[in-house]
Design a protein that fits this description.
By secondary structure, this protein is an alpha/beta fold. The protein starts with 5 loop residues before the first helix and ends in a 5-residue tail after the last helix. Helix 10 crosses helix 13. It is globular. Strands 1, 2, 3, 4, 5, 6, 7, 8, 9 and 10 form a ten-stranded mixed sheet that branches. The chain is built from 13 helices and ten strands. The structure holds glutamic acid (GLU). The site of glutamic acid has 15 residues, from helix 6. Keywords: Signal. This is TAXI family TRAP transporter solute-binding subunit. It holds the Pfam family NMT1_3. InterPro entries: TRAP_TAXI (IPR011852).
Length: 321
């Protein structure tokens, strides 16, 4: 996946810089995640397409690394970001005021489109003997950084399994970019990440040390899927990562693009148009995007209402009534 390397992305920016200005520039920011995840590529890819049209739209897009889903939603709410990538479970909770957003709904949250599936992923050192989620009891586990959707969903799973952070010998809060090296250095027995596949973080983790992708399944997970529309069964295909030839059974969410009702329709329209007018190009920017279909992207994973700017484009395409 050499195209994931930051060096190539910066080359891309150099190529798209400074067209003639037809109108005043408006800066937009897309919140992503850690640099070794897939959100970062989603944001960089969208900005790359948006910035090809700057002369016409006036929009100049940047997509910095962030703490992940919950951080992005909160920054959009605070007006510090225009858009962001967020897990479908956290989109749901933020809009409906449930779970971590209990009593604090973000009513202006708007869906733009859903992107790739994100399986809940746990990788353990082979020498830890961990084979199931319950085996994590007594182990040193990286539960993820606060502000990430991944960390939030990890807590939901813990709860569903009747476990708590106290069951671990250590619960560290390393960011995605740090956790793979910590696994390799034997500072933790297992890492967790709700993320699209393949990605740089899990690729690094599985290549620095002999590792096992942990099944996250059973009656507790079935009950979680049953009770929540935004969860579904998921498989991480065997053969994708070093030393893990068998399929891994788990559950997952979708990555989604979200924004606020306060962002102008023309802005969201221009972003959506840049992506879908150049959809083959977009799909080619990461293997996790390869199977995306527009009709699914605007139907699945979105629990907040669609932003009217996005709706305008989808209607023009005949994808919605
Ligand atoms: N789903 C993760 C989160 O919200 C981020 C995954 C990624 O960066 O690709 O924290």
């Amino acid at each position: 996946m050499s195209h994931l390397k930051p060096i190539l992305l910066s080359t891309v920016f150099a190529l798209t810089a400074t067209p003639l200005m037809a109108q005043e520039e408006q800066f937009i920011t897309i919140g992503t995640g850690g640099q070794t995840g897939v959100y970062y590529v989603v944001g960089q890819s969208i900005c790359r397409l948006v910035n090809r049209e700057t002369a016409e739209t006036g929009l100049r897009c940047t997509a910095p690394a962030t703490g992940g889903s919950i951080d992005n939603i909160n920054q959009i709410k605070a007006g510090g970001m225009t858009m962001g990538v967020a897990q479908s479970d956290w989109q749901y909770h933020a809009y409906n005021g449930s779970s971590d957003y209990e009593g604090d709904p973000f009513e202006d949250l708007r869906a733009v489109f859903a992107v790739h599936p994100e399986p809940f992923t746990v990788v353990a050192r082979a020498d830890s003997g961990v084979e199931t989620f319950a085996d994590l009891a007594g182990k040193r586990v990286n539960v993820g950084n606060p502000g990430s959707g991944s960390r939030g969903t990890f807590e939901v799973v813990l709860d569903a399994m009747g476990m708590s952070m106290d069951d671990f010998a250590l619960s560290s809060e390393l960011r995605p970019a740090e956790q793979s090296a910590a696994l390799g250095d034997n500072q933790v027995d297992a890492i967790s990440y709700t993320v699209g596949h393949p990605n740089g973080s899990i690729q690094e983790a599985t290549s620095v040390v002999a590792s096992t992708m942990v099944d996250v399944a059973g009656p507790e997970i079935d009950a979680l899927i049953e009770a929540n529309p935004f969860y579904a069964k998921a498989i991480i295909p065997g053969g994708m990562y070093a030393g893990n030839d068998e399929d891994t059974e788990t559950f997952g969410v979708k990555a989604t693009m979200v924004t606020s009702a306060t962002v102008p329709d023309d802005t969201v329209y221009a972003v959506v148009k840049a992506v879908f007018d150049n959809f083959d190009r977009f799909k080619g920017l990461h293997p996790a995007f390869a199977t995306l279909e527009p009709e699914e992207m605007i139907a699945d994973g979105n629990s907040a209402p669609l932003h009217p700017g996005a709706e305008r484009y989808y209607r023009e395409q005949g994808w919605i009534e």
